[in-house]
Amino acid sequence: MKNIKFGLTLLMASLALLGCQSNKSSQVPVNKNVTANSVQSDNNRAVLSEVKSLKVATWNVEHLAYPAAQGCKPRDSAEIIKLKSYAANLSADIVALQEVASYQAVESVFPANSWQIFISERADSETYECRKSGFMSTQQKVAFAVRKGLDVKQVHSLAELALDNPSLRYGLELTVSTDFGQVTLLNVHMKSGCFVDNYSRATDKKSCATLAKQAPVLDSWIETREKQGEPYVVLGDFNHRLSAPYNHLTRLLKNNSDQSASSLDVTTKDLIGCHPYYPAPIDHILVGHMNSLSMNKQIKAHYFDKMEPNEMLSDHCAVSIEISADALPLSNAVKWQRTSAEYKYLTQSTYQEAANVVAEANFTSPWVVVMDIDETVLDNSGYQVGIDKQGLTYQTDTWNDWVESKQAGLVPGAKSFIETVIESGGKLALITNRNRELDKYTWQNMLELGLPISVENTCLVGRVAQDKMAIDGGAIKNDKDLRRRQLQQGEISCYVSGSKRHSDFPKLEIIMQIGDNIEDFSGVTQEHVDPMELLKTNDNELFLLPNPMYGSW
């Protein structure tokens, strides 16, 4: 008892120094034709990468056909090889493409073994003779080539940009998980021929009248992203000169209808078009909600080896933006838990004292030790490092990704204590507030760390909605009390494998509770507990570990 009181006193002093911190209560199969709004990912996705970088490019490939010898710009195999080499040298993570005829056409330049390919759902339009050349046109669609390993969350064709006109192009929207969180990109190929600064005053020109109808569609898409507050990119062949701040389309896109400040940045406004005949750029990359002072944006036009008009690989050069950010510093709480000797001393000494209690006791009935998981058995400071360095806070989706990645380590001292419990004939009840649907990942993570757990000696039980709903302020005061009662009554639902569970865990006497949160103890809430009274009634049954990173406080 004396040692426990000393440990808790030292812990409180340590936490007081840290102050308030944050709270926390793959590859995609290549799609030849996008037909669904969502794309399922596998478990190869990166979780909260510490290196923050994203490079995207836009490139009008000029009538890229398959077979390559067809269409308005027939190409031979040597030219395709040059296009492929040029594409590789972009070193981009995502490339928005315009004027591509088909999945096969894109694949000839962006091989499917390295790239995920997505192409708009626009129906094939009627062919026509290409500028009296004798060649018949192929399709002009937009597509994305996404480097394999990036997690594509959603793909959607924006048909509204085509204005129900079969000769106009759809937009293509793609949401991808990146080092900056989820980013939504929109690939556009706008109506050509309206090169005045104010299309609204040139509606007698057919191309400008069409652009005037497309502009509100694009503006509406951008306004939606502005309100959502998440990073977005609009890129492609605008067929319009957005570089001037007085350009009518630029002003429309940069002014939010609710009068809020726009985050939109025309990053390509200072570029010079690469084509010798057309110095005013019409290929642009616009970004929103990426204006952090720590973000660096490098814009580049990628010139061809030969820039004579008749020797260019296409009539547009690719334009790219590389967005990077310096990692933000770790919070004191995370730094302390990751690096301090005090943290290791506190956890190991606490577990050692608890193990001594177990080893020296003589229990006369079947018994169980109830333990929390996070920051009690499993060390999730790696997750906290990731969100700290990116300036993020706890989010359910990133947390679930972390759990599924099974990257958590062990809290110092936890393994030896668990071994002592099992060797002494006891059982473990791991009552966690991780979502119960994630139990299989938690179990696999613990097995991979070498913990001697089995379905016979350990009951793992995550949280469900009923655990919160059962709180009545009486017998059930916190969201673990119901599961503790079920454990004592022999009714608890324990993880087995996959989605299987069992309720065969016997009625057991809870002889000890260990956690990192005061609510890991029976009948206790953060708001109403008196720590000193709890200490007075604690007879080597309650052990509290340090966690300055998050909690019910």
Number of helices: 14
Q: Termini, distance in Å?
A: 26 Å
Strand order of the largest sheet: 3-4-2-1-12-11
Major β-sheet profile: 6 strands, mixed
Q: How many β-strand runs?
A: 21
Approximate strand percentage: 15-25%
Q: What structural category do the secondary elements indicate? A: alpha/beta
What is the general shape?
elongated
What is the subunit arrangement here? single chain
Helix % is 25-40%
Instruction: State mean pLDDT (0 to 100 scale).
Output: 88
Radius of gyration, Cα only, in angstroms? 30 Å
Quick overview:
Pfam families: Acid_phosphat_B, Exo_endo_phos. Residues 57-289 form the Endonuclease/exonuclease/phosphatase domain. The chain is α/β, with parallel strands linked by helices and 553 residues long.
Tell me what the structure shows:
Helix content is 27%, strand content 23%. It is of the alpha/beta class and 553 residues long. A hairpin with a 2-residue loop joins strand 6 (171-178) and strand 7. The chain is elongated and about 95 Å long. The two termini are 26 Å apart.
Write the layout of secondary structure elements.
Layout: H1 2-18, E1 52-64, H2 77-89, E2 94-100, H3 103-107, E3 115-119, E4 141-147, E5 151-158, E6 171-178, E7 181-189, H4 206-228, E8 232-237, H5 248-254, E9 265-266, E10 283-288, E11 295-302, E12 318-325, H6 332-339, H7 341-360, E13 367-371, E14 378-379, H8 381-389, H9 396-405, E15 409-410, H10 414-423, E16 427-435, H11 439-448, E17 458-463, H12 465-469, H13 481-488, E18 494-497, E19 500-502, E20 509-515, H14 531-537, E21 542-544
Parallel strand pairs: 1-2, 7-8, 13-16, 13-20, 16-17, 20-21
Antiparallel strand pairs: 1-12, 2-4, 3-4, 5-6, 6-7, 8-10, 9-10, 11-12, 14-15, 18-19
Helix pairs in contact: 1-7, 6-7, 7-10
